[in-house]
Write a structure and sequence with these properties.
Length: about 40
């Protein structure tokens, strides 16, 4: 039972990091586009 809780917590943390990374990449791509596109 205890181990199951640990797994859940790790999954939650892991998914958080994945979301974080996704957002980070989006921001990087976005700023890259902004720098390279002249309006």
């Amino acid at each position: 039972m205890q181990e199951d809780n640990e797994n859940k917590r790790m999954k939650k943390r892991y998914s958080f990091f994945i979301d974080f990374e996704r957002v980070l990449t989006k921001t990087q791509v976005f700023s890259f586009l902004l720098r390279n596109v002249n309006f």
